[in-house]
Specification:
Blueprint lengths: L13 E2 L1 E6 L5 E6 L2 E5 L2 E6 L4 H9 L1 E6 L5 H9 L8 H5 L3 E3 L6 E3 L4 E13 L2 E13 L12 H4 L2 E4 L4 E4 L18
Antiparallel strand pairs: 1-11, 2-3, 2-6, 4-5, 5-10, 6-9, 7-8, 9-10, 11-12
């Protein structure tokens, strides 16, 4: 029997995404966010609160990188969600992570994260429920050690983790349990 839980943002998994931007003084800001994802083949959508320092940076630079958090950097990634660059000016420096300037957009690439999407801001959408930022993916950077023999990202090697909205936990992702567009093919036969 199902129990009524009312209105709650209960979807799983929620990606743990790291948005990296430059502050007005060219220092690096990284924000941990789970309310975003792919919205078209070359587009991402980020749902943010206007009060985040990252939003001011996005409006100023019109660019960002979006990295997938990996289990090796769970402490740093969680810290980027706890600390606010509005009040902690040395937020990124405290993490001891390193960044280089993207060659394609005016945003930092965090060296330690294995997969990064380089994006330019396409549109800010002020909605009744918050701010949505649409970004165009102009390139994807991947460490060679997360690629398979065909040069595609191997989810198991990525070592990503997802956010559990139910109990505020992180869960490692990566075990393949089926092949998309094939696992349900038997239902196509009459």
């Amino acid at each position: 029997m199902k129990k009524d839980l009312g209105v709650a943002p209960y979807l799983f998994p929620m990606p743990v995404l790291m948005i990296a931007t430059y502050n007005e003084d060219e220092t690096v800001d990284v924000m941990n966010m789970a309310w975003g994802g792919i919205c078209a083949e070359n587009m991402v959508a980020l749902n943010l609160e206007e009060s985040h320092k990252t939003v001011a940076n996005l409006k100023n630079t019109k660019a960002f990188t979006l990295s997938i958090a990996d289990a090796a950097h769970i402490a740093e990634s969680d810290f980027f969600g706890i600390a606010s660059a509005n009040t902690m000016k040395d937020k990124f420096a405290r993490s001891k992570m390193t960044a280089v300037k993207s060659s394609r957009v005016n945003a930092p690439v965090i060296e330690e994260y294995p997969l990064t999407l380089e994006c330019k801001v396409v549109e800010f959408q002020n909605q009744p429920y918050g701010l949505r930022v649409l970004g165009e993916i102009v390139n994807v950077l991947a460490e060679e050690n997360i690629l398979d023999e065909k040069g595609k990202v191997d989810a198991a090697k990525l070592n990503a983790f997802a956010f559990d909205q139910f109990r505020s936990g992180y869960y490692k992702v990566g075990e393949k349990i089926g092949q998309a567009w094939n696992a349900g093919a038997s239902f196509m036969k009459k």
